[in-house]
Amino acid sequence: xxxxxxxxxxxxxxxxxxxxxxxxxxxxxxxxxxxxxxxxxxxxxxxxxxxxxxxxxxxxxxxxxxxxxxxxxxxxxxxxxxxxxxxxxxxxxxxxxxxxxxxxxxxxxxxxxxxxxxxxxxxxxxxxxxxxxxxxxxxxxxxxxxxxxxxxxxxxxxxxxxxxxxxxxxxxxxxxxxxxxxxxxxxxxxxxxxxxxxxxxxxxxxxxxxxxxxxxxxxxxxxxxxxxxxxxxxxxxxxxxxxxxxxxxxxxxxxxxxxxxxxxxxxxxxxxxxxxxxxxxxxxxxxxxxxxxxxxxxxxxxxxxxxxxxxxxxxxxxxxxxxxxxxxxxxxxxxxxxxxxxxxxxxxxxxxxxxxxxxxxxxxxxxxxxx
Length: 371
Known about the structure:
By secondary structure, this protein is mainly β. The chain is 5% helix and 30% strand.
């Protein structure tokens, strides 16, 4: 299952990052592109506008160990791109620095963002720029691994030519901002160092417009780490690298996961509980939904039926659907402030407030159940 609605607008503030021996493009200060598309890419330093074919040999997988050349990934197998950062422009704070922990590591803190959040990442090739995406062929490897600790949740994402608009040097022609629904995986951080290893086959779009044919590892432009809004996020990152799976080994964590497997730690699933006062007219309903490969899911919705309607009625039904990280109660009580219920009483119709299935976009706070 997927979240019912994604935000319709993703206009963000693009932030240039200071990079060694490189200058940010002036276009980095603009949010949407000239074509009106919402942009989620920052300005990336570039050493030129040419894209010579670059293919990994599979002999040196290190992307960055943060020991040398701050602001730039390790220059091996033709890589050597630059680090960048970006945010939603809502006045939060994003700090990215290389410090000493157990060794030299990348330290990132994010807080105070209220729209969609913030992110950082690295281009694989130094020739990549804001308007000129250059692809790196990493098909000699099986996936990506890194060491990490911290608090919060992030989404690890690959961008490629296939999911970058032509205005930014790619070949994606899907409408609106759906090109930016890129292949990714969710990563939950812990206080202790952990090794995160994800094969390329595990990377899939979130589901609001992306191509589900799979990640093309021969077509990589950047690797990105995205932090959600309304969370105090902190990360220590080290030893970012491609890895090669041993011959005959079976790839794990591949393909789309079941909804319950993607629920953030601490999120509260309690379909029969409501945070609003239920009445004779406003009632809560649950039902079992059978899925093809994930068993049964308990679904829920609120309905408002004016008491003056006959028990058997042909009155119209209005379906009200909430957005990401919300639920039926927030739609009834906060987004619409009960106005639909008032209109239903006046004009004689039924209101049904749908509730998305539990999944990756639940609010991690237990104080907001069934989001």
